[in-house]
C-alpha cells in the first residue's frame, strides 16, 4: 500500500500539517512594541478586550486630540508616517480588536462592533471629544462611532474611505455577503489545512471576518444625518475603494470639504506629506470655530444632497476582479449555466468587457470538468447504474446546467476526447447561454423594465431564463420520444 505515490503524498502532507500546528501552538505570543500601550475595555456586552494603541504627547497647545483608525487588514502603524507630520499634537492611533497587537479573539469584527469598542476605549481614556480620522474601512468605523455618540466628534476625516453600500464591490449587500462568505471559507481552509507554520496567522481570517461581519447599508443614512465638519481625501486611481464612493459621500454630506488626489489607495502611508497640510489646516479651522456644519453648507450643495441617488456602474478593478473570478469558478463547479448567467449580467451592467469574463469562464469550465472527471475516475469500483450520481438522468440535469453529472459519467473517456467533446461542447453551450442572457439583460435595461443597478433582479431574471429554457428543452425532448 505504501508503495503507491498518493499514500506517500498523504503521509508527507499530514506530517507537515501536524508540524505546522505544533509550531503555531507552541510559538511565543507576539509581544507589542515598546512604543505601544495596552488598555482593557468592554463594550458592555462581551468579555473585556485588550486594546493596543500608539499615543503622542500634546506639546504644541492643540485644543483637541486626534484619533486615527486603520483599515482592514491593518494596525496603528499605518499612521506612523502621517503622525510624524504633526509634531507635538496629541494623536492616538488604535489597533482595532482583532488586529495588530490588540486581542484577536473577538466575537464580532463588524465596523459597528469596532465603533462600540472605540467609544469604550475613548471613554476609558477620558477623552470626551476628538478629531476622528478613518482610513479605508476605518472610515466606516468612525461613521458608526459618530452615530452612536455624536458628542465625541469634533470633526471627521475620511482618507480613502469606504462609503455607501452601492459602491462597495458589486453594490448589492447580499451578493457581496455571499462573496465575502466564500472568501472567509477559503481563508479558513488556507489557515487550517495548509502547512504554513504561522505565516497565514494574524490577518487572513481577521480581514475576511471584518468584511463578512460588516453591513455598509446603514452608512448612507448615518452620513446623511452627520451635521459636523468633515474632510474627504481620496485618490482618483484608488483600486480598492472607487472614487465614486467618495464623491457620493461628498454629495450627501453637503458641508464636507472634498479633495480628489492624483493618487491611489495607499497615499496615507506612502506619501503622507501630500495630505498633512490640508488636515492640519482643517483641524485648526474647526478648533477656531470656523468649521462648516450642515447648517452652514451652501444652498446648492444642500439641494444636491437632497436629490436622488444616481447610480453609476463602475468597471471592475482590483479586488472586484478577483472576487468575480472566485465567484465564477465556484458557481461553475455546481452549475455552468448559472455561471454563464453571472458573467452575462456583469457584462450587461458594464462591470466587465467581453474578454475577461470569457477567459475566466473558460478556465472555470475547464477546472470544473477536470475536477468532476477526477471524482468520477475514483468511483471505478462502484457499479455505475446502482449509485448516485450515476443513477440520475444526466440529460435532465444537463438541461438545468448541472453538467458535473455528465462529467462524472464520462470520466472513463480518454483525456483528449473528454476535453474536446465533453468540456468543449459544454463551454460552447454555456457561452451561447451567457450571450443570450446578455442580450436579454440589455433589452430589459434599455426598455426600462429593470434598472441596470439592480444586480439581484438581473440575476433572478437570468436564472429564470435558464429554468424556462430547461423546461422547454425537456418538453420538446419528451414530445420527440413519443
Overview of the structural elements:
It is a single chain. With 482 residues, the chain is α/β, with parallel strands linked by helices. It has 2 domains: 32-168 and 216-306, Alpha/Beta hydrolase fold, catalytic domain (Rossmann fold, 3-Layer(aba) Sandwich), CATH 3.40.50.1820; 319-380 and 387-481, no CATH class. 52% of the residues lie in helices and 10% in strands. It has helices at 5-26, 80-83, 111-125, 138-148, 173-193, 204-213, 219-225, 243-252, 267-270, 273-287, 299-306, 319-334, 336-349, 355-377, 394-399, 404-409, 415-446, 455-481; strands at residues 37-41, 49-56, 65-69, 91-94, 130-135, 153-159, 230-235, 257-261. An 8-stranded mixed β-sheet has the order 1-2-4-3-5-6-7-8, sandwiched between helices. α3 (111-125) packs across α4 (138-148) and α13 crosses α18 (455-481). It starts with a helix and ends with a helix.
Radius of gyration: 27 Å
Described by the principal axes of the CA atoms, the overall outline is: globular
DSSP strand content:
5-15%
Structural class, from secondary structure content? Answer: alpha/beta
CATH topology of the largest domain: Rossmann fold
| Strands side by side in the biggest sheet | 1-2-4-3-5-6-7-8
- CATH architecture descriptor of the largest domain: 3-Layer(aba) Sandwich
What is the string of SSEs from the N terminus onward?
A: HEEEHEHEHEHHHEHEHHHHHHHHHH
Oligomer description: single chain
CATH homology-level superfamily of the largest domain? Alpha/Beta hydrolase fold, catalytic domain
Give the N-terminus to C-terminus distance in angstroms.
Answer: 53 Å
How many strand segments? Answer: 8
The percent range for helix content is 40-55%
The structural domain count equals: 2
Discrete helix count: 18
* Highest CATH level, the class of the largest domain: Alpha Beta
Largest sheet: 8 strands, mixed
Low-confidence stretches are: 381-390
Let me know the average pLDDT: 86
